[in-house]
Protein: EAL domain-containing protein
Amino acid sequence: AKGQGKGRQVTYDPAMDQRSAEQSRLAADLRIALDTDQLHLLYQPIVEMPGGELFGVETLVRWTHPVRGPIGPAVFIPAAERTGLIVPLGAWILEESCRQAVRWRNELGAAAPQTVTVNVSARQLREAGFAEEVADVLARTGLPPEVLTVEVTETAVFDGGTALTELRAIAGLGVKIALDDFGTGHSSLGLLRTCPADVLKVDKSFVDDVTEGGQQAVVVAALIGICEGMGLRAVAEGVETAEQAAELQRLGYRYAQGFYYGRPMPAAAYTPAGRVAA
Ligand code: C2E
Ligand code: CA
Ligand code: CA
Ligand code: CA
Structure:
């Protein structure tokens, strides 16, 4: 109450108060969403250039709030991370993605995505026994480990503690590791020495610059060289135009992901023809 705690002056920021109230409301609703089927998964194609044949997919979670309608993951994932809800949410995303990967392999055979990429947040990676959980999910679903790619950001790996240990254990299972948003963090190149990476996702901000004559165009050119030298698969993220695709290929890129090749889509959009239905 007013007048109390005089020595403890805290500046009142109504905007911040509103934000955190909003965050806790969101987290409370998300807890319900998890139990009531409000969440679903979309899969965005990762393609091989120049033809744009399907190589793999990345799982992207969606939430249709009963009152507010669709809420993007950029809004609710941070809330889920802060509250720890990302742990059960992430477990569900991982298991459902593995189940879907098995379904595709059964239904589509050779036309099935060769890899299913699941985003794993720092908070999940910090949980002791996360690698064990991955092993359990693979055993439960019968998915061959090499079909799963676990995608982490460099900040998640550098979160300290056991993250790197867990990641190494996951790699030890035969699961592929992708580094997301590569180049946007603080210690990207150093990370390549310690972290068991198989795939490097070159961030959209760099990809945008290849046709806009931006300063970062040189980063895109350098990263493909690093990937080739280190035996990593480079995936260019956020490819939106034919011009970007052409320039990336000229630089030596083979794998791309972005609206130009395909939006995030429901599992049923992947068909036996091996091509993504428009
Ligand atoms: P991200 O992992 O970097 O995922 C790529 C984001 O870029 C997705 O946004 C995707 O829809 C969008 N995108 C793909 N191609 C293009 C393009 O050509 N142009 C543009 N403008 N955008 C493109 P989305 O689905 O809204 O997800 C946003 C972020 O939320 C993700 O960024 C990821 O950090 C997080 N996220 C989404 N799903 C999950 C999940 O299942 N688990 C966790 N931990 N995080 C998730
Ligand atoms: Ca990602
Ligand atoms: Ca990304
Ligand atoms: Ca991102």
User: Anything to note?
Assistant: The longest strand covers residues 53-65.
